[in-house]
Amino acid sequence: MTALPAPRDDAPPALRRIAALAPLTQAAKAALADAIGRALRVPARRELLTEGKPITEMRMIVSGWAARARILPDGQRQFMSFLFPGDLIGYCRQPAPLAVSTVVALTDLTVCTPPAEGDHPSLCTAYTISAAIEEAYLLANITRLGRMSAQERIYDLFLEFHERLALAGLAVGGAFELPLTQEMLGDALGLTSVHVNRMIQAARRDGDIEWRGGHLKLRHPRELARRLGRHPTRISAEQ
Amino acid sequence: MTALPAPRDDAPPALRRIAALAPLTQAAKAALADAIGRALRVPARRELLTEGKPITEMRMIVSGWAARARILPDGQRQFMSFLFPGDLIGYCRQPAPLAVSTVVALTDLTVCTPPAEGDHPSLCTAYTISAAIEEAYLLANITRLGRMSAQERIYDLFLEFHERLALAGLAVGGAFELPLTQEMLGDALGLTSVHVNRMIQAARRDGDIEWRGGHLKLRHPRELARRLGRHPTRISAEQ
DNA sequence: CGGAATTTTGAAACCTTTCAAATTGGGTGG
DNA sequence: CCACCCAATTTGAAAGGTTTCAAAATTCCG
């Protein structure tokens, strides 16, 4: 009896995510794995892109969390979206692109320079799908900010984290590492850290979440999603 | 003495906008003008795309206003962005795309099917730039919703309208046609129509705007932009 | 001209922010 | 291994901005 080739659950999260977006050829997988193997460290707080400055190179997050942000004249900060392993940074198609948002490392990161689009058509498809998904999450953030209460915003963002991290194999059973401060959550949700804190405490009291030591567990992700009327993000009819 | 070819200020606004994004070949201009000439009417309130449904064809707004929207389970509506003459609808690169937002006609529209990307490389560039600009305006909306007061949101959105309409030649001297109800503004700004109304009245009292009969005039656009710390949207170092 | 949609007004309730200060927690050096 | 320090979390009270719910006034359109 011969063993079937087992699905590689031990593949790097970044590779897992990209491979989940579009079927990759063996060559494309190898090229991406190679790039990931040569990833470099970036310390927390460092900017990978700065709003208004030219974008010279595409990057991919290999490990850690980053955020797209805008800084207002008065120093306030607004996060546009979060970036996880497998997410692209500076993927643009127009000539001489300028960054429309700053990208900042929220934790210590490792980032790599993924294979160029031209080299592997199957990777090109995955990059395109990745960009489309990212736009969908921008829209989700607009809806959160425009139409949800503070409590709903927090739950909805946690569910988004869960959905996205699961794609890279980084969330199991409603639980995942959450290396954010309550102030960072506030920067994403348009709330003060004080109010985020109060709503988190309410969520704990209600038995909806556990969050200690950088580890978050959603007690009833399904039921929470139902309460919020939240649907999984889909951008393509395929698969 | 021979007359120089004068810039065609009488070109259709949609063509003006696209031509302003990237230099177009004569053939591309002709093809686009031809498409615009065969535009069709779409009545107000009609949906041009529906969230979750397949996208079959690309469109371009020739005249009128539309919006990208999401409808929540409880019937609330959130506008993601507005679409003006020269803006693209359903321009996607991934296979079998599904609409991530509904697109609804806010006024009676005319829309056309613009030339496919493959036919004119210069148009492809313009489409790409158009998509990048649209993303920048999504980010602007996130910042508005997350970090601005009601009054600031209204001013900032009006300045965005001015900037975008000017590109198509539809705004002069700080004034333009604004065919929105205060409820629609609320749907974009995450506010109730009642509060939009109160803030609009305050803006009138302060002498910052005039708005009657669908016609809006910003009294001091420059000074208003300065007060808000608003910079023009730039996505490319070229031009 | 009539009816529907939109704008306007008021008062009270509600959610979120603000400002400060106290407490907790994690990491570092002695 | 403990003490210390800084960052992050937590708490309270008061102020503030926005929503809610009606109802009235106005405007637009057929």
In a few lines, what is going on in this structure?
Chain A has helices at residues 13-21, 26-37, 121-147, 150-167, 182-189, 193-205, 221-228, and strands at 40-42, 47-49, 59-63, 66-71, 77-83, 88-89, 102-105, 109-112, 175-177, 209-212, 215-218.
Oligomeric state of shown chains: homodimer
Strand percentage of chain A lies at: 15-25%
Walk across the major sheet of chain A and give the strand order.
Answer: 1-8-3-6
Describe the largest sheet of chain A: 4 strands, antiparallel
Shape of chain A: globular
Unreliable parts of chain A:
none
Average pLDDT value of chain A?
95
The ordered string of helix (H) and strand (E) elements of chain A is HHEEEEEEEEHHEHHEEH
Terminal CA distance of chain A reads 31 Å
Number of strands of chain A: 11
Helix content of chain A: 25-40%
List the total number of helices of chain A.
7
Helix/strand class of chain A: alpha+beta
* Radius of gyration of chain A, in angstroms, nearest whole number: 18 Å
Largest chain interface and its two residue counts?
A: A-B, 43 and 43 residues
